[in-house]
Specification:
Shape: globular
Cofactor: Ni(2+); Mn(2+)
CATH topology of the largest domain: Rossmann fold
Organism: Acer saccharum (Sugar maple)
Keywords: Hydrolase, Manganese, Metal-binding, Nickel
CATH class of the largest domain: Alpha Beta
CATH architecture of the largest domain: 3-Layer(aba) Sandwich
Distance between the termini: 34 Å
Strand order of the largest sheet: 2-11-10-9-3-4-7
CATH superfamily of the largest domain: Uncharacterised protein PF01937, DUF89, domain 3
Oligomer: single chain
Helix content: 40-55%
Number of strands: 11
Largest sheet: 7 strands, mixed
Pfam family, one: ARMT1-like_dom
Number of helices: 13
Domain Damage-control phosphatase ARMT1-like metal-binding: 53-359
Number of domains: 2
Amino acid sequence: MESDSEMVPLPLLSTPIESNYRACTIPYRFPSDNPKKPTPTEIAWINLFLNSISSFKKRAESDATVPDAPVRAQKFAQRYFEILEDFKKDPESHGGPPDCILLCRIREQILRELGFRDIFKKVKAEENEKAISLFGDVVRLNDAIEDPGKRIENLIRGIFAGNIFDLGSAQLAEVFSRDGMSFLASCQNIVPRPWVIDDLDAFKGKWGKKTWKKAVIFVDNSGADIILGILPFARELLRQGTTVVLAANDLPSINDVTYPELIEIISKLKDENGQLMGVDTSNLLIANSGNDLPVIDLARVSQELAYLASDADLVILEGMGRGIETNLYAQFKCDSMKIGMVKHPEVAQFLGGRLYDCVIKYNEVSSQR
């Protein structure tokens, strides 16, 4: 994990870090709440994390890289369970009060302390290989759509379909272990519009009228998400003349794609001329975000990413963790888009939408730097 001295605020944030920026979208408590008594929202979210323990324990048990993995997995499950129960008794225990960042961080810390570096490594590798084999077909289907508006809508729907592959959701982890996931079936099964937050038409309207010089995309999951959802979209931006920075996690967390994994994926997809299905990739940059969680606090990113992002005029936060559970209301100095699928009932309830509803929140700044 990187030291605090190496982490800096994302320069694209438009509000002062120390006063207005708040990473977590859903307020678990308010100043008037009793600090020693958990709120109903805190209880609901603690229970959500409690329900995920069994799927994480199962993945940890099968980690062949860790000696005595079943024993250590049981220790993880017991320790995390006890901490979550402690929060129910005293919200200020263990560095609380809890929010989604703290609850994720404690889970990751326990896993790492017990020697588990990447319990989803095997399933990520399998899903990446499957998605790589489908990449050409997905791109060709998109390229065959002549109308720019319809093509960008198809690409956006592809991002939603890919984002379903999320093993941080207890329900989806169970479905995946039982049935697997089909990208094309997921494309067809996206909930009908209007979505709970639906700025698709506004984004489509700007697509043909402006070209962003540089876009920073905070990417989410391995497999279909990054390869069949984000990369075809990034390729389309490259075709428009936009420089694209893909920001990926420093360390493994759930099935999120990491910086080294993303570099390997891109190298496998490029042809001998360094192109992605006929599109030049000299303006495609991969950045280490410095993050180690499935959610992100933009007050703490790597200096590398801060430098690459300093002159961007579009920032995209993809996935429920980075773009909905955190940063949905974050304000930027440039155009921004938050895009992801709602995969927790608690998030759906907060937004007033449906489970597996879609979010595309597009904000255009009136005058760019």
